[in-house]
């Protein structure tokens, strides 16, 4: 880096020059390419103790700028040991957060362009590409046409499924309080519903939206861990009888814990009868609907007011990228729109454009559609279907091995890419097995509790996971699971 090191007092420009950027950019892309090529050889989960990474960093920020190669070197030497390698093909934990070449390059380009897409007028291409690609997604997943921007609905990219459920709840709250919440806020009587298996983001949204955690009803599930519609209807009736105002139901297509599928059509019927907002959370599993044979997971979705899924989980698009669709965009916009003088502009006032700042909590927004557009164009629908099918096939193969084994059992149905299983030897045995597996550094799995019992989860969804990696996991499981 030239100016900073030479004569700091005389320097007038500390910026990285375009030539330097080109050189270091190439070196950084090379580093990433090498990283992805060798990531399978690194221990999947980091094992550093708390504080270890900080202890290797200087106590104070550098007074003088440093040469860029030193920065990359420290990523390698200091940070790498403190990373859990989510891009490792041996990563089977939590849920995938996969990426791909086109997504990484789209992200880089978004940073390079550095535009703010809060209003249509602050970068028309940013808004229009986003609306367009989200309409593509409606077709690609065969979602109800009411989620398209050509009608009363539309899609928007949120940072996360958590933000999506929060925005859905805010719109539901607005609708239930007769659009008067700008005066009254939350009136202390609103109630929301989800299942005992729903993601914690629903409870967080309920807290943020001011309903209060005690106004979130966690409805019982059946033996497949899916929400029971009759229990939902009963609970709504009980709350109404108590003078409360039921307003919102969040159903899940593929729960985080066990990939359970709530019965959307039957829950939707309850919501219609009761005039409740139905949000459907398909965070990871929604991607499966790229393939016609898995679209049954969305049966009844035409009854939903909103739907969200995360390309940043299973669709080869690096975090953050959640696709959030609403059937009635006016409801969402009414809940979130604010127009200060300094944002007034002719395009907005004409009503002919979408201003996405009214569809989300923050004002500013990144050009996230770029990476999604790159991914879709690179793979094509056919390429995406190929890899999703492959992941499901690998998971089913693994589930088959578990089902056939005398030592292990399936703990829940495995409809897509997540297999929940346990050793028949009890909780301690399973806890020890999980620790032993992860200690090998060759695979990484996580756990859940199902029916009160410790359960291992193997989730197939990493971009580069192949048969050999699932086979390796199964071999290690058998080896370390025997006494
Ligand atoms: C992962 C997950 C979430 C949270 O996703 P974020 O995008 O990280 O907020 C929500 N719901 C389900 C079902 C999930 O699996």
How would you describe the shape? globular
CATH topology of the largest domain: Aspartate Aminotransferase, domain 2
Strand content: 5-15%
How many domains make up the 3D coordinates?
2
> Would you state the CATH class of the largest domain?
Alpha Beta
| CATH architecture descriptor name of the largest domain | 3-Layer(aba) Sandwich
Query: Helical segment tally?
Result: 17
Low-confidence stretches are: none
Helix percentage: 40-55%
CATH superfamily of the largest domain: Type I PLP-dependent aspartate aminotransferase-like (Major domain)
End-to-end C-alpha gap: 58 Å
| Category from helices, strands and their pairing | alpha/beta
What is the averaged pLDDT score? Answer: 95
Major β-sheet strand ordering: 1-7-6-5-4-2-3
The description of the largest β-sheet is:
7 strands, mixed
N-to-C order of helices and strands: HHHHHHEHHEHEHEHEEHEHHHEEHEEH
Radius of gyration: 24 Å
Description:
The chain has 483 residues and is an alpha/beta fold. It has two domains: 115-366, 3-Layer(aba) Sandwich (Aspartate Aminotransferase, domain 2); 379-481, Aspartate Aminotransferase, domain 1. 43% of the residues lie in helices and 12% in strands. The protein is built from 17 helices and eleven strands. It has helices spanning 2-6, 18-38, 52-55, 68-79, 101-113, 124-140, 161-176, 181-184, 200-208, 229-241, 264-274, 311-314, 329-336, 346-350, 369-404, 427-439, 467-481, and strands spanning 154-158, 190-195, 216-219, 245-252, 277-281, 306-309, 322-326, 408-410, 418-423, 446-450, 453-459. Strands 1-7-6-5-4-2-3 form a seven-stranded mixed sheet, with helices on both faces. A four-stranded antiparallel sheet has the order 8-9-11-10. Strand 8 (408-410) and strand 9 (418-423) form a beta hairpin. Helix 10 (229-241) runs parallel beside helix 11 (264-274) and helix 15 (369-404) crosses helix 17. The protein is globular and about 60 Å long. 43% of the residues are buried. The model has no long low-confidence stretch (mean pLDDT 95).
């Amino acid at each position: 880096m030239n100016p900073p090191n030479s004569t700091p007092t005389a320097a007038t420009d500390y910026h990285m020059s375009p030539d330097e950027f080109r050189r270091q950019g190439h070196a950084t892309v090379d580093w990433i390419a090498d990283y992805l090529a060798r990531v399978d050889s690194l221990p999947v989960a980091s094992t550093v103790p708390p504080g270890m990474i900080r202890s290797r960093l200087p106590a104070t920020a550098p007074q003088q700028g440093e040469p860029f190669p030193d920065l990359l070197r420290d990523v390698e030497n200091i940070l790498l040991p403190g990373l859990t390698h989510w891009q490792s093909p041996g990563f089977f934990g939590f849920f995938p957060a996969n990426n791909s070449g086109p997504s990484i390059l789209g992200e880089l380009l978004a940073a390079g362009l550095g535009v703010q897409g809060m209003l249509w007028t602050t970068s028309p291409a940013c808004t229009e590409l986003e609306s367009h690609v989200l309409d593509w997604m409606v077709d690609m997943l065969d979602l109800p046409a009411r989620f398209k921007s050509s009608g009363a609905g539309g899609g928007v990219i949120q940072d996360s499924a958590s933000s999506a459920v929060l925005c859905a709840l805010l719109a539901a709250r607005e609708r239930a309080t007769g659009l008067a919440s700008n005066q009254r806020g939350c009136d202390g009587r609103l109630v929301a519903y989800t299942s005992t298996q729903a993601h914690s983001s629903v409870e967080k949204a309920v807290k943020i939206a001011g309903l209060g955690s005690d106004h979130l009803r966690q409805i019982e599930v059946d033996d497949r861990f899916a929400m029971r519609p009759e229990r939902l209807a009963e609970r709504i009736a009980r709350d109404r009888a108590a003078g409360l105002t039921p307003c919102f139901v969040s159903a899940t297509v593929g729960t985080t814990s066990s990939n359970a599928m709530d019965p959307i059509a039957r829950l939707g019927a309850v919501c219609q009868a009761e005039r409740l907002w139905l949000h459907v959370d398909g965070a990871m599993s929604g991607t499966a609907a790229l393939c016609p044979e898995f679209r049954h997971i969305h049966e009844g979705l035409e009854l939903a007011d909103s739907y969200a899924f995360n390309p940043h989980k299973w669709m080869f698009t690096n975090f953050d990228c959640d696709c959030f669709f609403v059937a009635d965009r006016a409801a969402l916009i009414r809940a979130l729109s604010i127009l200060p003088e300094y944002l007034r502009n002719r395009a907005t006032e004409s009503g002919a454009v979408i201003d996405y700042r009214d569809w989300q909590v923050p004002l500013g927004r990144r050009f996230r559609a770029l990476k999604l557009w790159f991914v879709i164009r690179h793979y094509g629908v056919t390429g995406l279907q190929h890899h999703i099918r492959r992941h499901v096939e690998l998971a089913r193969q693994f589930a088959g091995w578990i089902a056939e084994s005398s030592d292990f059992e399936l703990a829940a149905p495995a409809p897509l890419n997540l297999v929940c299983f346990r050793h028949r030897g009890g909780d301690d045995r399973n806890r020890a097995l999980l620790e032993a597996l992860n200690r090998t550094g060759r695979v990484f799995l996580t756990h859940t509790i199902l029916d009160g019992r410790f359960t291992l989860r193997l989730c197939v969804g990493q971009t580069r996971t192949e048969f050999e990696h699932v086979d390796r996991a199964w071999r290690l499981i058998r080896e370390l699971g025997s006494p």
